[in-house]
Amino acid sequence: MALEAWLIDESDDEDQRLPHHRNPKEFVSLGKLEDLGILYWHLDPKNYENDEELKKIRESRGYNYMDLLELCPGKVENYEEKLKNFYREHIHADEEIRYCLEGSGYFDVRDKEDHWIRIWIKEGDMIVLPAGIYHRFTLDTSNYVKLMRLFVGEPVWTAFNRPQEEHPARQGYIKNLFENSGVALEAH
């Protein structure tokens, strides 16, 4: 199953959980996501506890902390408020690593021209968003996702809402983005 990503029609104020395709649809390649520093793997979510490939990724990238999050009505206190917070455009000082074990949702990221790209993660999709990339998250109309969250060291949950142009993680991301333009990143 291939990861799906597309440019969003930003003029629409409809429900954030809808796909928001442009007309005509404009899909984005995995190569373009890699150019933005986003890494992707497709793994076996039914075997995550014994998955050798996941173990290798965790060891090679230093992901020593893991927890699970189920996001849906009834499972999360203040569900609607949390979903709104996840959907605010922000950055993190560290990578954001998410592995979708069940359900689905959308990560939106900004491209080099500051347009939104919507990445639809489904069961088995694992993505790494680089530190400093502007992004947001929402569920799709299924209203359910179970995610594995991975971290290097102790988890840091701090989101820095846009604008954050002076934040060291943002400055580092921008520097890498334009210095490495055209240089292939680690692809999976």
TrEMBL record:
The organism named in the record is: Phoenix dactylifera
EC class? oxidoreductase
Physiological role:
Catalyzes 2 different reactions between oxygen and the acireductone 1,2-dihydroxy-3-keto-5-methylthiopentene (DHK-MTPene) depending upon the metal bound in the active site. Fe-containing acireductone dioxygenase (Fe-ARD) produces formate and 2-keto-4-methylthiobutyrate (KMTB), the alpha-ketoacid precursor of methionine in the methionine recycle pathway. Ni-containing acireductone dioxygenase (Ni-ARD) produces methylthiopropionate, carbon monoxide and formate, and does not lie on the methionine recycle pathway.
GO molecular function list: acireductone dioxygenase (Ni2+-requiring) activity; acireductone dioxygenase [iron(II)-requiring] activity; iron ion binding; nickel cation binding
Positions annotated to bind Ni(2+): H90, H92, E96, H135
Q: Which InterPro entries match?
A: ARD, ARD_euk, RmlC-like_jellyroll, RmlC_Cupin_sf
Gene encoding this polypeptide? LOC103718242
Q: What family is this?
A: Belongs to the acireductone dioxygenase (ARD) family.
**One of this protein's Pfam families, by short name?**
ARD
The record's subcellular location field reads: Cell membrane; Cytoplasm; Nucleus
Q: Which residues bind Fe(2+)?
A: H90, H92, E96, H135
Q: In which pathway does it act?
A: Amino-acid biosynthesis; L-methionine biosynthesis via salvage pathway; L-methionine from S-methyl-5-thio-alpha-D-ribose 1-phosphate: step 5/6
State how the cofactor is bound.
Binds either 1 Fe or Ni cation per monomer. Iron-binding promotes an acireductone dioxygenase reaction producing 2-keto-4-methylthiobutyrate, while nickel-binding promotes an acireductone dioxygenase reaction producing 3-(methylsulfanyl)propanoate.
A Gene Ontology cellular component where this protein is annotated is: plasma membrane
Membrane topology label = Peripheral membrane protein
Question: Which CDD domains does this one have?
Answer: cupin_ARD (cd02232)
**Stored Gene3D superfamilies:** Jelly Rolls (2.60.120.10)
Q: Which UniProt keywords apply?
A: Amino-acid biosynthesis, Cytoplasm, Dioxygenase, Iron, Metal-binding, Methionine biosynthesis, Nickel, Nucleus, Oxidoreductase
- Please list the reactions this protein catalyses: 1,2-dihydroxy-5-(methylsulfanyl)pent-1-en-3-one + O2 = 3-(methylsulfanyl)propanoate + CO + formate + 2 H(+); 1,2-dihydroxy-5-(methylsulfanyl)pent-1-en-3-one + O2 = 4-methylsulfanyl-2-oxobutanoate + formate + 2 H(+)
Instruction: Specify the protein name.
Output: Acireductone dioxygenase
Cofactors per UniProt?
A: Fe(2+); Ni(2+)
Q: State which Enzyme Commission number(s) the record gives.
A: 1.13.11.54, 1.13.11.53
Q: Name one GO biological process term.
A: L-methionine salvage from methylthioadenosine
HAMAP family xrefs:
Salvage_MtnD_euk
